[in-house]
Structures are given as structure tokens and as C-alpha cells.
Design goal:
Elements lengths: L4 E5 L3 H13 L3 E5 L2 H10 L6 E5 L7 H11 L5 E6 L3 H4 L1 H4 L4 E5 L3 H12 L24 H14 L5 E4 L6 H10 L8 E5 L5 H9 L16 H4 L4 E5 L6 H13 L1 E3 L6 E3 L3 E6 L3 H6 L5 H7 L2 E4 L10 H16 L5 E2 L1 H9 L5 H15 L4 E2 L1 H8 L5 H20 L4 H20 L4 H8 L3 H8 L12
Parallel strand pairs: 1-2, 1-3, 3-4, 4-5, 6-11, 6-12, 7-8, 8-11, 13-14
Antiparallel strand pairs: 9-10
Helix pairs in contact: 1-6, 7-8, 14-16, 15-17, 16-17, 19-20, 20-21
Bound molecules: adenosine-5'-triphosphate (ATP).
Length: 470
């Protein structure tokens, strides 16, 4: 069977490059095109058409929606993922009606794109293609803020002992890099480092992803699949977004951690493994335990040692160092000339709040490497790259939230974070569903969520009429 092939159509060289690299690393054949016309010409001439196509929306010449339409006329069953900037989402909601398979809002996380491709092309990818089994050398964890120095010391100490570690911190703060560093510095370094993002994989596939399955274990399981635990034997298993793990699987994971052995899904043979688990979460797991969403005994098992990564806004002194690093890295990988930041530009970067933390900074630097016209990056370039993401009304909203939080703390409300998240999700979902007349796929696209995530958030009994009282 030939390996599945993926095509990327995007006018932005940086996006083509990073997406193609990530998908190739994951084991797929990838071809990339800079515009719709050349992609369509290649499609018509191709002996082996793609099995999946990613397209940008806004491109010079025919846009991605025109391309989508033309492709659908030729091959209606071709899955097409439409990628678009956050600000274009409203105009892109129609993409689903036009037959798009999925929607990826830019800037996106490469892991999400790879997971999405894995969903479309099937979970039993060729075994050699495990996206996370990358070489773990040369991934520098940079920083000289006191909290980071303390963290490096802790990593050095902890790497030697096979203790479970829980890494906490907001999204994009570098939790996975910490896990990789723990592995790299450990006696397990010559064995695999395997990562699994619990939140990126649909709940129904998670069990077989973790523990593997035998051929015929369920519909669609044609071949035996070796799970991540087995892949990581002798090495380190990194479980990202552990807080999102479904309850039944938490129970199973706990048992495996206690006993070091398990059955594959549909299997009778007991599999023994020696795996060091590093788990990560951006959530408050104690609060999830208190509200019954996370098992206390599993938390204790994972949380033998805890490492906390501060958000980037709490270590602003590291911003210039990180920015220079990402800019140089992007230039090398783009084959472009190195650029430098003006003082003002660095000040602007240092003043930003970075809700997406280091990942957001990395994305902005890639954008600057690819787009800023001169060799010196000025403040205005940074303004443009940061976009107009902080309209003034957001401030009012945050103010209201702060008032609410103060009042709730005053009342002694114990589960503030969960309540807030739930209300936030509910408001966003209701507004989006209201706008799309209840069509979930489009509502998901409007919110920049995957359809699966939306369905999970809606859950049973969560489908409410738009204007129900609270
Ligand atoms: N201190 C650092 N030095 C260099 N690069 C970093 C650092 N911290 C994070 N990065 C880079 O930022 C990006 C995000 O890091 P990472 O994936 O480890 O974050 P995360 O906390 O695991 O995110 P999430 O919770 O969303 O999974 C990666 O590309 C990583 O290489």
C-alpha cells in the first residue's frame, strides 16, 4: 500500500515549510504549492492524487474556497482542510457548506495539524511514523530568569531518578520541552521519547493509542497496533493535557502505572513495560479532583514531583533572548538572511502579554522572519505581526470577569476556575450556535475549535437553546 500523500496549498512560504516538515516527520508524503492554479494543474496531471489536502483561504489569484469548489467537482470524496486566520473565520464558515472536511484556524499548533491528518488518514499509520519520536538532541530550553534557572537545576537533579513528574504551566510555556530535557538528561536517553496529547485524540481512540490493540479488536482495526506505552518501553512517555483524560481511561492508566503491565485492547497477552511517565497539564488538577473530574489517586501517582513553568509574562527578561533565537532559527530554516530587532521592536515584544506564551512568541518571530520587509525589524513590523488582537472591548470583559472572580472568592466559591471555564465555554458556544442556526460544524469553525472538541464541550444535555436563562 503506498504511503498516504498530503498536499499543502499556501502562499506563505513559512507555513508551507513548517507544515510540510511536521507532516513529513509524521511519515506522510507531502507536496506543497504556492497558489490554487498550480495545485489544480498538478491535481489534473497527477497519477497519484493526494489523500488529503490543506489549503489556505486568502491567496493571490483564486482563493482557497474556489480551489475547494473545483476539487470537489473533480473528486467529491477528497478530504480538504481549510486553514484561515482568526480574523477571516466569519467569512470562512461557508467553507463547511462548500464541503470542507475540517477547519484549522491560524496560527495553529503543528501537533494539532498532525493529529488532524492522523484522524483523516486513519489512526493506524505506518508504525515508523510516530510523530513524536523525534531525535531529542539539540532542543535547547532557553532562559535566564531566576525561575528558569531553578527549573534547570531541578531537571538536572530529577533526570537521574525514574520518578514520575508532573509539569504544570499555561499553554505554550514549554512543558513538552521540559519533558524532553528530563528524558535527554536521563539514563533512558538512548531509548525512545514518546509523546501523546490526550486532548488532541478523540476519546474513543485514546485507549488503543495508549495501550495498542489487536487486529479485529473493533471495527476498523485491521492490523495490530502497538500503543504508545509499548513504543516508549525503556524510555519516557510524555502525556500532555492529562487533565482532559476521560474517567474510564484514568482508571486504566492508574492500574498500568501501579502494575507496569496491561492488555492491548482486544488482547489476551499481558504486556510488561518499563516506562517513565512525565505528565503535563495547564489545568488546576486539584480543582478537577475536587469537582470529581480527576482521580485523586491518579494525581498522587503522577505528581511525585511537580515542576511549574511560569507564563512568559512573568519572565519578560527572557523575551529578547527567545525572540533572537526564534528569529535566527526561522531564517536558517527558511533559507533567508538573518534579521535583527530594533530596540523599539524588542520593547514592544517585551510589553506584550503573550497569552499563548513561548509558542505565540515563536509564531510571531516566524511571521517576522518570513514577512518583515527589511533586515531590521521595526516596532511597526511587530505591531503588524501581533495583529489587532486586543480590541478595547476585551478589556471591559476582563474587568467584568475580575469583578466576578472577586465576588466569588468573597463568597468562598471553591471551584472558581471550573465554573469560569464552563461559563466561558457556554457563552461562546451559545453565541456561535445562535449565529449558525444550531449548525455545530460551522459553530466550531467560528470559534476556531475542531468539531470533536465542540461536540465534547456540548456533551450530553449541554445543547441549550441560545437564550435560555442561566
Ligand atoms: N524556554 C524555551 N526555550 C526555547 N524554546 C521554547 C522554550 N519554551 C518553549 N519553547 C518553544 O515553544 C513552543 C511551545 O513549547 P511546548 O510545546 O513545550 O509548550 P507546552 O507548554 O507543552 O504547550 P501546550 O500546553 O500547548 O502543549 C515549542 O516550539 C518550544 O520549542
Amino acid at each position: 500500500m503506498p504511503e498516504p500523500s498530503i498536499w499543502i496549498v499556501d502562499d506563505e512560504a513559512a507555513i508551507r515549510f513548517v507544515l510540510a516538515t511536521a507532516l513529513r516527520d509524521a511519515g506522510w508524503r507531502v507536496d506543497a504549492f504556492a497558489d490554487a492554479t498550480s495545485a489544480l494543474a498538478a491535481f489534473d496531471a497527477a497519477a497519484n492524487p493526494p489523500d488529503l489536502l490543506f489549503t489556505d483561504v486568502r491567496m493571490p489569484g483564486d482563493d482557497g474556497l474556489v480551489l475547494l469548489d473545483r476539487l470537489k467537482q473533480r473528486r467529491p470524496e477528497l478530504p480538504v482542510v481549510v486553514m484561515s486566520a482568526y480574523t477571516d473565520i466569519a467569512s470562512t464558515a461557508g467553507a463547511f457548506r462548500a464541503g470542507a472536511h475540517e477547519f484549522l484556524s491560524k496560527p495553529f499548533d503543528l501537533d494539532d495539524a498532525v493529529a488532524l491528518a492522523a484522524r483523516v488518514l486513519g489512526p493506524s499509520m505506518p508504525p515508523a511514523s510516530t510523530p513524536d519520536e523525534l531525535p531529542v538532541t539539540g532542543e535547547a530550553l532557553l532562559g535566564h530568569a531566576p525561575a528558569m534557572r531553578e527549573l534547570f537545576r531541578a531537571i538536572g537533579r530529577l533526570a537521574q531518578a525514574p520518578l514520575s513528574v508532573l509539569v504544570t504551566g499555561e499553554t505554550g510555556t514549554g512543558k513538552e520541552l521540559v519533558a524532553r530535557a528530563l528524558h535527554r538528561e536521563s539514563p533512558r536517553a538512548h531509548r525512545p521519547f514518546v509523546a501523546l496529547n490526550t486532548a488532541a485524540i478523540p476519546a474513543e481512540l485514546l485507549e488503543s493509542e495508549l495501550f495498542g490493540h489487536e487486529a479485529g479488536a473493533f471495527t476498523g482495526a485491521q492490523r495490530r497496533h502497538v500503543g504508545r506505552f509499548e513504543q516508549a518501553d525503556g524510555g519516557t512517555l510524555f502525556l500532555d493535557e492529562i487533565g482532559d483524560m476521560p474517567a474510564a481511561l484514568q482508571t486504566r492508566l492508574l492500574r498500568v502505572l501501579q502494575q507496569g503491565e496491561f492488555f492491548r485492547v482486544g488482547g489476551r497477552e499481558l504486556v510488561r513495560v518499563d516506562v517513565r511517565v512525565v505528565a503535563a497539564t495547564h489545568q488546576d488538577l486539584e480543582a478537577r479532583v475536587a469537582s470529581g473530574q480527576f482521580r485523586a489517586d491518579l494525581l498522587h501517582r503522577l505528581d511525585v514531583v511537580r515542576l511549574r513553568l511560569p507564563p512568559l509574562r512573568e519572565r519578560r527578561e527572557d523575551i529578547p533572548l527567545l525572540a533572537a533565537h526564534f528569529l535566527a532559527q526561522a531564517a536558517t530554516r527558511l533559507g533567508a538572511r538573518a534579521k535583527r530587532f530594533d530596540r523599539d521592536a524588542l520593547d514592544r515584544l517585551a510589553a506584550h502579554d503573550w497569552p499563548g506564551n513561548v509558542r505565540e512568541l515563536e509564531n510571531v518571530c516566524w511571521r517576522l522572519a518570513a514577512l518583515a520587509p527589511g533586515e531590521r525589524i521595526a516596532r511597526a513590523d511587530v505591531d503588524a505581526a501581533l495583529g489587532t488582537v486586543e480590541p478595547t472591548r476585551v478589556v471591559d470583559w476582563e474587568q467584568a470577569l475580575a469583578d466576578w472572580a472577586r465576588a466569588a472568592l468573597e463568597r468562598g466559591d471553591a471551584q472558581l476556575h471550573d465554573t469560569a471555564r464552563e461559563r466561558l465555554d457556554r457563552v461562546l458556544l451559545d453565541v456561535a450556535l445562535e449565529r449558525t442556526g444550531g449548525r455545530r460544524g460551522e459553530a466550531a469553525a467560528l470559534l476556531g475549535l475542531g468539531r470533536n472538541t465542540l461536540t465534547r464541550k456540548l456533551g450530553p444535555g449541554r445543547v441549550r437553546r441560545p437564550r435560555d436563562a442561566n
